[in-house]
Amino acid sequence: MATNIILLTTDDLNYNSVGFMGCSTPDITPNIDRLAAEGLSFDNAHVAIAVCQPSRTALMTGMYPHHNGARGFEDVNRSVTTLTEVLRRFGYYNGIIGKEDHLTPKDKFSWDEYISTYNNEDDYGRNPAKYYQYTRDFLRNAKLSGKPFFLMANTHDPHRPFANSDDEIDFFGRHIAVDYEYTSDEVEVPGFLADIPSVRKEIAQYYSSVRRCDQSVGEILRALREEGMDSDTLIWFLSDNGMAFPFAKTNCYLNSTRSPWIVRWPGKIQEGKKTGALVSGIDFMPTIIEILGLPLVDGLDGKSLASVLSGESDQHYETIYTQFFKTAKNQITKRERHYPMRCVQNNRYAYIYNAWADEETEFMNESMSGITFKALKEAACHDSNIAERVHFYEYRVREELYDYRNDPDALHNLFDSSDYNGLLEEFRRKMHDYLITTKDELLANFENDIIK
What we know:
The chain is an alpha/beta fold and 452 residues long. The protein has two domains: 4-314, Alkaline Phosphatase, subunit A, CATH 3.40.720; 321-451, Arylsulfatase, C-terminal domain (2-Layer Sandwich). It contains 14 helices and twelve strands. Helix 7 (197-226) runs antiparallel to helix 11 and helix 13 packs antiparallel against helix 14 (443-451).
């Protein structure tokens, strides 16, 4: 019997915003934590790029954004083979719920069901009951088709605007219900942000959205159980990128690309297991192809995780390569803005190359909306440490080097430390190799700026 597959994604959920990854906020993600307890969780999983559309496209093509054509809100190249094209060819019934417009052109993804949730009736993808309803209906239709299914179910939580924020009124004209609203004293401010009252307030709003996100996950899983399809379905869970705050989403930091990955496959994957294997979003498609025994697709950048899922190996990559190209047009940027960044990292260290950083170009992204960045700018007027962080975020430097084991929030750039000269040169070589082997358009820039 063919395997059913659910790819369950959340929108801007930071890796450490869930209980099983160490979040201290009470009762934040019981459904996601239960899924982790029933499957394999990854301590070192990363998406290929920390922005919604290209991150999801990398998952569904097994290719880096500059190879599949979708660097940031563009269509996939017509020459690229998508996972759902392959699955349809081999008899799968394909469906997508939410974030459907982030996989384009539509016909390249071979959907049998195409369900939008970003509308007033569906509470803009933030209503758990709607995810139950749409998942149940899809599963019943899949049964009637007599085919195995692939369902990509995507919540819009905890993307901005956050629960009970003023921005929610600005965007939607109303607040969207949450069953619990966290207070400022119930949350922990991430280490890459200053712990000041206004920041703490917005973090509490974010966590209220995280809790609602978890409920949507729970409702999707409830529909699967009630339809009697729980035991023969392979579930992948992950976030498309980090939280929409400074130093996370739309960057190349640990809090940008690290994702809370879970894979549950009853009878095939040991329950409650963790792996330290370093993996990337580009590995999803080749893994599905191998475990289903389908013909290989040429030109994929990722490689199968089958041996990691089976427990045969706890190793995958020594280093991974992550990218950022450009922001979308939004209320902050006003237009598409290009900020080319590349990162090479292993399980401890990361080297970032900011090709755009010239001491004059100012960085702008969606994470500067809302309360937090405004509060940081105001606090910078009387706090030199905050002022330094704000300036660094806005202008950056050409090279960054971090020890994530001791500094996961990337507070201390080791680039200028003589103690790390050897490591810096090693990672420069690794970056150069990735730029060459992936035919990255930044190769000439890097050679002019760094190699010389």
